[in-house]
Design a protein that fits this description.
Length: about 220
């Protein structure tokens, strides 16, 4: 099967079947979520070897785009040296499809990880914490990550003009943007569901925007 022929639901079922068939995988305590082909594994494993086997099994399923490993190994806490923990966290952040690892600084002391630097959204901040917490040997994670300053309405509207302008049919003058700190609310009219989704994606892509309330109305 090619990627385009596999739905998220089919991938989810295929991964669970793979876990059930694999002799190295005991994944009864592992959660599986799939979105746009990206698989997120959560929960707990009994050992580092079991964790690696679960992640490897998920990656080998045809159609999987990427695997986000959030599986913790409680039994490994205190058994891994700080340098190895730090390297594991850096690798986890680098491999995460939603993170810009070069912006995140990793510090480790007695297996307690401190994350500092800047990320673009609350979702990225949460993803960084979860990825770090899942690294074998991590005792705890201290989150010192920051978000960009809240954008202005003109910055957000400029981004909308750029993206919707490519669509060729949107009338940006009919889109009203209201900002409440890091939250943008879009109101007004667009000509298609595509333009409505494109407007929301554009607003979410503005540095500093953490959430978007899409109240745009599609008029034909």
């Amino acid at each position: 099967m090619t990627r385009t022929s596999v739905t998220d639901q089919q991938l989810h079922a295929a991964i669970l079947r793979r876990f059930a068939w694999s002799p190295d995988t005991h994944a009864t305590c592992v959660g599986v979520a799939v979105r746009a082909g990206v698989v997120t594994l959560s929960g707990a494993a009994g050992s580092a070897a079991e964790k690696r086997a679960v992640v490897r099994s998920a990656r080998e399923v045809q159609g999987v785009v990427a695997v986000v490993d959030e599986i913790a190994v409680p039994a490994a806490v205190g058994t891994v040296d700080d340098p190895d923990v730090a390297e594991g966290v850096r690798v986890a952040l680098h491999d995460h499809p939603a993170l810009h690892a070069e912006r995140i600084t990793v510090g480790v002391h007695h297996q307690v990880v401190t994350l500092s630097g800047r990320v673009n959204s609350v979702e990225q901040r949460r993803a960084a914490r979860r990825s770090a917490q899942a690294v074998v040997g991590v005792r705890a994670v201290i989150d010192e990550l920051t978000l960009p300053p809240a954008p202005t309405a003109s910055q957000t509207k400029a981004r909308l003009v750029e993206v919707l302008g490519r669509a060729g049919s949107a009338d940006i003058d009919q889109v009203d943007i209201k900002l409440d700190g890091h939250v943008a609310t879009l109101e007004g009219n667009v000509h298609s569901w595509y333009e409505r989704r494109a407007a929301e994606r554009a607003a979410r892509s503005v540095p500093g925007i953490t959430d978007v309330h899409n109240k745009l109305v599609v008029t034909f």
